[in-house]
Amino acid sequence: MRKIISLIILLLITACQQKKAIEQRNRDFIELEFIRDTFINTDILKEPVYFSFDGRGDYDLMFMTIPVAFKEDDSLRFVRQPFILVNPELPIAKTTSPNLEETIFPRVFTRDSQFLYLRSIWNNLEGKKVYFRLPYGKIIERRFIRITPDTLVLEGSGKRSTITDYADSYINILTMQKVEPRSEYDPVYHIKFRKGIPYLNIFRGLGVAVSIGDSVDRMITAASGLVLHENRDRDDFYTDRYLSILGDRWFTVDSWGKLVPRKEVFILEKSDSVRYAFQILNFYHPQDPSKPGFITLRYGRIKRIHR
C-alpha cells in the first residue's frame, strides 16, 4: 500500500514538473538593453506632457488629466483625473510582471483608441437621418444631405449648413459649423476630420454617441445624464466610451486618498525591431511627496527575447 501511495505521489510530482517545464518553454522572457528611471518635472495636472522613449515621432505616451463628472444632488461636479494615452499608431500590451527585470513578452498587442472611427459607416450616411446624443443626454437630429471628399451638407433644426474643405477640421454638430478646440480632447467639437476621414469625439463621456435610423426608442440614459459605457446598454447608439489600455486604470487609490501605481509592465512596439518595456513608478514629486502630478517612470529598450 505504501509503495502504491509513493508511486502516485511520484507520478503527481513528475506531472507537475512536466507541466511547469512546458509552461516555462511557452513563455518568452525579455532581456533589456538598459533600464532608466526618468522623472518628468512637469505637473500634468496643469498641462499635458508628451513623452517619447527615443525622441522620434510625435509622442509615445501622453500624460494628462481628463474631466470626470460626479453626480451631487441635482448638479454635476467635475474633477481632473490622471490619464495616460498611448499613441494610437503604436501597438501596446500589458503584462502581469511586477517589474521590468521579470517581464514576460505578451502574446497579444492592441492599440489605444482616441476616437471612434466612423469610416465603416461613413459611406452609408448620405441621405440618412442621424441622431447624435450630446453630453448629458441631449439628443439632436441631423440629416446628411451630401458627402463628397471636400464638402459636407447637413440639415437640421430648420436650417441647412454646407461645410467645405474639411480635410483637417473640427465640426460642432449642434451649430453645424467648424470650431477651433483648445485641444484634441476638447468636448466643444463632435466630429473630427483628419485627411477627410471622420472620427467621433468620444472623450470620456463628454463626447457623443451616434444612432443611424428612424428610432431611438430603445435609448437608455443614465440617471446622471452622462453617456458612459454606451456599448453595454444594448441600445441603438454606437459606443462613445473612451478606450485606453492605460487610461485611468494604471493606478489605485489608497485609504488616505493617495494615488498608487499598479505593479504592471507595459510593452510598446515602435517597429518590428524596436520595443520598449516600461512601468509607472510614482505620481508625486520625489522631493515633495505631498505634491501630485509628477510622473516617474522606469523603462528599457528590449534587447532580445528568450524563447
Structural class: mainly beta
Report Rg: 24 Å
Discrete helix count: 2
Report on the biggest sheet.
Answer: 6 strands, antiparallel
Mean pLDDT: 76
Share in β-strands: 35-45%
Helix content: under 10%
In whole angstroms, the N-to-C terminal distance is 43 Å
Please report the total strand number as a whole number.
Answer: 21
Order of helices and strands, N to C?
HEEEEEEEHEEEEEEEEEEEEEE
Weakly predicted, low-confidence segments: 19-26, 214-236, 238-242
Q: What is the molecular shape?
A: elongated
Task: Report on this structure.
The protein is mainly beta. Helix content is 9%, strand content 42%. The chain has two helices and 21 strands. The protein is elongated and about 85 Å long. About 12% of the residues have low confidence.
Task: Describe the secondary-structure layout.
Blueprint: H1 2-26, E1 29-32, E2 36-40, E3 49-51, E4 61-72, E5 75-86, E6 92-95, E7 116-117, H2 119-122, E8 129-133, E9 139-147, E10 151-156, E11 159-164, E12 168-172, E13 177-179, E14 191-194, E15 197-200, E16 209-212, E17 251-253, E18 259-261, E19 265-269, E20 275-285, E21 288-306
Antiparallel strand pairs: 1-21, 2-21, 3-4, 4-5, 6-19, 7-15, 8-9, 8-16, 9-10, 10-11, 12-13, 12-14, 14-15, 17-18, 19-20, 20-21
